[in-house]
Amino acid sequence: MKGRRRHSFPNGQNRYYEIPDSDRVFPSIVRLINVTLRGQPKDKMDQSDGGRATDHLANERTYLAWVRTSVTIMALGFVVAKFGLIIRELSPSSVTVPTHVSSAVGVILVLIGAVLQGLAFRRFRRNRARIIQGSFESETGMENVTSSLILLISVLLVVYLIITA
Questions:
Q1: What is d(CA 120, CA 114) in angstroms, rounded to the nearest whole number?
Q2: What's the predicted TM-score (pTM) here?
Q3: Does an H or E element contain 18, and which?
Q4: 20 to 30 A from 58, CA-CA: which of 10, 24, 83, 110?
Q5: Looking at residue 42, what DSSP letter applies?
Q6: SS3 breakdown of the chain: % helix, strand, coil, rounded to 5?
Q7: pLDDT (tens digit per residue) in 136-145
Q8: Is 100 exposed, middle or buried (0-12, 13-18, 19+ CB in 10 A)?
């Protein structure tokens, strides 16, 4: 922005002064002012470079949380399945319900955990592709499936506890 600038005084006099080329004199200050007033330059905000690392790391953390949830459900299924065997071995005469009920509930829980793991992986891959494309849209499908599965698990465990009581 090199050039001459005029300053008018109240008494009618005019004074001209030179304006230095600010891009060469103070490049970092000019850039800071431009970024502050106008926001980030478009090339810095463009998501076509594959998304920001923070987006990918957040996607990975979410996937790992789903993995922990599915592993926990599968572990619960394993414990329930083996619990019937432990009861049968400790006191075979007091068991009135066949142990296949606990085995069935345990297998169902393990299958639910496996399905949840598959859905979590699918969601991770889909979100990763959307982040790279820059067209991420939030979904609630996994939350709905998980809530339904947890409700099913709760009902199965209540039924199991009522039967074995």
A1: 10
A2: 0.57
A3: strand 14-19
A4: 110
A5: H
A6: 70, 5, 20
A7: 777 777 788 7
A8: exposed
